[in-house]
Structure prediction request, 171 residues.
Amino acid sequence: MLERAQTVRLMIFDVDGVMTDGSLYYTDAGEEMKAFNSLDGHGLKMLKQSGVQLAIITGRQSKLVEHRARNLGIDHLIQGAHDKRASFEALLDKLGFTADQCGYMGDDVIDLPVMRRAHFAIAVPDSPTVVRQHAHYVTGARGGHGAVREACEVIMQAQGTLDAQLAAYLA
Prediction:
């Protein structure tokens, strides 16, 4: 698993069930709301600072995901991806990466085509069994509750960059 994490140059995340707990909240006006974990957000920022590019591929379309991605400095955002594998392949072509340089973190069967193609596939513990079976790593933390942070730290640990990212806070 750590050998796979060492090769990640582009880490791609799903949103619902990974960056959030998967709950969908709607106001009376029909506006969608999601809760994001701040620890996850800082993990993403550290992973990016360590030299790994970040992307989101999500099947849903949401302005608030656009805002979250911008806030975290995630430059590559694909929303409304009904065929996540096609979106994954298009992203690789655009950025010049191979699947062997990519990681993907998902939580449901719609993520399996990308998880099976990416070199380092990560799932959350509340994913269906079939999804966990195709993951190279299953986080201990649940989606929306530190799973993304854990995944980021695993990658940085494998690449030897975690200590450098934490050094400023330990000085």
Summary: The chain has eight helices and eight strands. Residues 147-159 form the longest helix (13 residues).
